Amino acid sequence: MKNSKNEHAYLDLLQYVMNNGTEKGDRTGTGTISHFGAQLRFNLADGFPLLTTKKVHFKSIVYELLWFLSGSTHVGYLQQHNVRIWNEWATAAQTARFNRAEGDLGPIYGHQWRNYGASKKEDGSYAADGVDQITEVIHQIKINPNSRRLIVSGWNPCEAEQVALPPCHTLFQFFVADNKLSCQLYQRSADLFLGVPFNIASYALLTQMVAQVCDLEVGEFIWTGGDCHIYQNHREQVELQLTRSLYTLPTLTLNPNVKDIFAFTYEDISVDGYESHLAIKAPVAV
Question: Is 232 a domain residue?
Fold first, then answer.
């Protein structure tokens, strides 16, 4: 599959922020170069948007998305599969700030997607009386594809301060036209070098999974960023990435027999023909 507009658009945004961003402070104390408001469009028919200018760890993307869809907020599932991307938020020191046991991240993505607005029990856990936004949005896509309310919100202002890291990707909306499913994500805080490549691939994968269970073809994934930033200690790595040539995009393959969004397993999802430059190591801001 070709790789023209897809990855070029992401690289162009990196270059734009490097050249035109504003230097700002941030919660980590590292400092950033930031730009407010940007949009990238990916035609999923052109290939799966997994960056080729640096290797992106697809296994972590898949397991994290399956974890979100399960509704779980404990890192045990990820750790069982050797996925470490949430470990720094799950330490005893981090969770103790919220009177939670080690590994319990509280009302993050999985909770908001599957049990939004749930009431809290006396022991600090949540009752199963919230809104299952994923089930509801898939139901609406099937029965009312022209709806303009095909929305899942990860941002709950009543609970945003109850977690160490409030949701960065805060809202996504589906759109059906010509029997094709598209999705737009709004991301309030966008770490362009480390986080955004994961987010693009994750939501492109989610879009294709939802399309399959709704008997639709895939359209576009549109990524919209709020505070789009490059950490000061990532500048050298970004400059290296911008020198690299593009490879052809891989193809995403899903097990066609899976018709329930919650029935997907890691073995049902694969990318074929993924060729990339080497990964670029960079410090993680926490």
Answer: yes
Tally of domains in the chain: 1
Q: Cα 10–25–108 angle (5° rounding)?
A: 65
- 97 annotated ligand binder: no
pLDDT (tens digit per residue) in 235-266: 999 999 999 999 999 999 999 999 999 999 99
| 32 falls within a domain | yes
Span 129-161, pLDDT tens digits:
999 999 999 999 999 999 999 999 999 999 999
- Positions marked catalytic: 168
Per residue in 79-110, pLDDT (tens digit) is 999 999 999 999 999 999 999 999 999 999 99
155, two tokens: 């941002």
230 is in an annotated binding site: yes
- Residue listed under structure tokens 């969004």: 261
The annotation status of 84 as a binding-site residue, yes or no, is no
The whole-model pTM stands at: 0.96
Determine whether the annotation assigns residue 149 to a binding site.
yes
**Which CATH number characterizes residue 115's domain?**
3.30.572.10
Q: Is residue 1 part of a domain?
A: no
Helix axes 195-213, 5-20, angle to 10 degrees: 150
